[in-house]
Amino acid sequence: MQIVPLPDNKDIHRQMAELLVEGFKVHWDAWKTVAEGLEEIQMVRTEGFIRVALDDTGKIVLGWIGGLPEYDGNVWELHPMVVRAEYQKQGIGRALITDFEAQIKTRGGLTIHLGTDDEDSMTSLANCDLYDNLPERIAHIQNFKGHPYEFYQKCGYKITGVVPDANGRGKPDIIMSKCVY
Questions:
Q1: CA–CA separation, 157 vs 149, rounded Å?
Q2: What is the DSSP string of 40-65?
């Protein structure tokens, strides 16, 4: 596997867009078409940067990650990250995160943040009143259905907030952050 900057290759871009559609339809259905995926790639490419995990031949996209600068480059949003289903749980996501963090450091970034939505009642933060004792709810969060917040915790990210009802009633966005200096 190799992690590289976004190649100028339409086939790679198409694979990345297809991966967005497939990777996020399971729980979030964020990008419904390849065209929408290609638009997202263009937006991230224009506003930030993209790193792509390719197989050893350099022809198959295993996963990819994007970064968007905020707060004059002190903070970067990790957006999005996706790994091909058949390659998950093989260290590719962690390798993308490690590479991403190194990229942020070289750009002078201090903090990385991300939002990981709970639109399908995957955690104990869904379908409850998050305005009632939110710190306690965060401290005792439970993962019911394999929500990715635990993956990010294993990579050193902490839950730093929650946006209640971000995706509709009872569907919060879990905000996670990590210091990289």
A1: 9
A2: HHHHHHHHSEEEEEE-TTS-SEEEEE
Same structural domain for residues 36 and 76?
A: yes
Alpha helices, H only, 10-141: 10-25, 34-47, 92-106, 134-139
- Total structural domains within the chain: 2
**Tens of pLDDT, residues 100-118:** 999 999 999 999 999 999 9
pTM of the model: 0.94
Whichever domain contains 90, its CATH number is 3.40.630.30
36-76 residue pLDDT tens? 999 999 999 999 999 999 999 999 999 999 999 999 999 99
